[in-house]
Amino acid sequence: MDKLLIKGNGPLNGTVRISGAKNAALPLLMAGLLTEKPCVFTNVPALRDVRTTLALLGQLGARVSVEADKVNIDASEITNLIAPYDLVKTMRASILVLGPLLARFGRAQVSLPGGCAIGARPVNLHLSGLELMGAKIEVESGYISAHVDGRLQGANIFMDMVSVGATENLMMAAVLAEGTTILENAAREPEIVDLANCLNSMGAKVSGAGTDKIVIQGVESLNACHHSVLPDRIETGTFLVAAAATGGKVRCEHAAPDTLDAVISKLKEAGAKVTYGDDWIELDMQGQQPKSVNIKTAPHPGFPTDMQAQFVALNCVASGTGVVTETIFENRFMHVPELQRMGASIDLEANSAVCRGGSKLKGAQVMATDLRASASLVIAGLVAQGETLVDRIYHLDRGYEQIEVKLGGLGAKIQRVQ
Ligand SMILES: CC(=O)N[C@H]1[C@@H](OP(=O)(O)OP(=O)(O)OC[C@H]2O[C@@H](n3ccc(=O)[nH]c3=O)[C@H](O)[C@@H]2O)O[C@H](CO)[C@@H](O)[C@@H]1O
Ligand SMILES: C=C(OP(=O)(O)O)C(=O)O
């Protein structure tokens, strides 16, 4: 099993190219199921989750080809409407085939994703929304079986929690439904706007994406698409935090700074100089020790839960005490015991991590437990004295494209080992 070996060696410096966003690419690729016309996606990141998605689409009968960062999907001949446990268990976003398959073919069977390390992550909002659109749904033997007589029907759907995945699934179902669907209390993440833009380029009628009320007028069929995936705001934020933690200066290119307001504001509060243009962002820590910041995660435009672990690592080496509160997932502090193994001073109190800064971290063997927890251990390893060995980096490979190569380009001493 691959591991990362990191030798803490001072400030990161240089320029890094940001990849397309995992969380935009996965729903976009699933949207390829909505049409029999060819779909071409560019700026698709080379990630384990993307490979899983393409395997899933292939298993359903779609023809898929990949040339560098370009993915072609031809879903004209779907032969199978079952998303099996083996694939769904490795990637929860597999649930996003449900809306498109049901909308286009009137039935689908998808394995229940089940819980995962960061929380229970139920899919009740996905299912109740589809039921309001006329789907009959049964959950049996670990599978969701859904069917609809005729077409899905537009509906008024109020989601009592803000869910990115449910908003995406229901939006994809609604584009081919008969009549108008209104999604209220919708998630407002930039990846939802990217999906809506892509669907509209295929002939869908979606308005309001990026607000909490999305209105979708169903159409009978969708056209081909050619869409470039939004840059990854979480990958960008991770490199910026790594630069801040090491006292360095890093410029991220092919980025989307307008998706990073909450993160930029916290980096500035930590003492970093942050500058940006349309598609680049640069952080300069000017050799200074960062200051601890308080953070509370929230749905967009609040502070993203996917950046929480990286800021816990930053707070550990900053000056002062910072309180990091997680409000989205009930078990998203698994990086804390691993950071403690490296000498971090953190107390867990309910859903908050009280991070006492100023720790001199020491390299250790640590275990990645989920995607962003892994990123926080890598950041800690870059700052720690001596060698850090991060085990189980298959989590990291789900969401970061060649992180060791990109960090190496910024001067880090990091290598993938067996
Ligand atoms: C592939 C992808 O885009 N993943 C992102 C997506 O995950 P995902 O779409 O799974 O996350 P959600 O926004 O759905 O989850 C938010 C909260 O709602 C709860 N919930 C969700 C659905 C539901 O039917 N019932 C329910 O109770 C979840 O357990 C969680 O507590 O948004 C999360 C929150 O920004 C991010 O951390 C993930 O990186
Ligand atoms: C939690 C994440 O992803 P997923 O929803 O794919 O598990 C993440 O990207 O941090």
Automatic annotation (TrEMBL):
Species the sequence originates in: Bowmanella yangjiangensis
Subcellular location: Cytoplasm
Signal peptide per UniProt: none
Keywords: Cell cycle, Cell division, Cell shape, Cell wall biogenesis/degradation, Cytoplasm, Peptidoglycan synthesis, Pyruvate, Transferase
Keyword Phosphoprotein belongs to the record: no
Name of protein: UDP-N-acetylglucosamine 1-carboxyvinyltransferase
Gene3D superfamilies: Enolpyruvate transferase domain (3.65.10.10)
Gene: murA
EC number(s) from the headed UniProt entry: 2.5.1.7
Residue stretches making up the Enolpyruvate transferase domain: 7-407
PANTHER family: UDP-N-ACETYLGLUCOSAMINE 1-CARBOXYVINYLTRANSFERASE
Family matches, as Pfam families: EPSP_synthase (PF00275)
